[in-house]
Design goal:
With 92 residues, this protein is an alpha+beta fold. It has 3 helices and 3 strands; from the N terminus they run E-H-E-E-H-H. A 3-stranded antiparallel sheet has the order 1-3-2. A hairpin with a 5-residue loop joins strand 2 (30-33) and strand 3 (39-44). Helix 1 (13-27) packs across helix 3 (71-91).
Length: 92
């Protein structure tokens, strides 16, 4: 089923490139909408895979907007997203 999720820390095309590349193998094609705030990703995903997607996004530094994170986790996610963004820019 096609579903859309709001994510944080996605700033640019580098972030979008990383999301598309890193999520493709497990989740297939991912669309990243850089026009909306908060940013949205859209993909064809079964409800049973959403928790796994959330873990993958958090690992990359782009968690779901509704995910509850403390100060340390939030800072860690931002740091991871900067690295993921830089990698996406270099690979793009």
């Amino acid at each position: 089923m096609i579903q859309t999720f709001k994510v944080i820390n996605v700033k640019c095309g580098g972030c979008a490139a990383t999301l598309k590349e890193k999520l493709f193998k497990k989740f297939g094609e991912v669309e990243v909408d850089l026009e909306k705030e908060p940013r949205e990703i859209t993909l064809d995903i079964a409800n049973e895979q959403i928790q796994e997607l959330g873990k993958a996004l958090k690992k990359l530094g782009y968690p779901f907007i509704e995910e509850k994170m403390g100060f340390v986790d939030s800072g860690s996610a931002k740091a991871k997203s900067f690295v993921s963004c830089a990698i996406g820019k270099m690979n793009n």
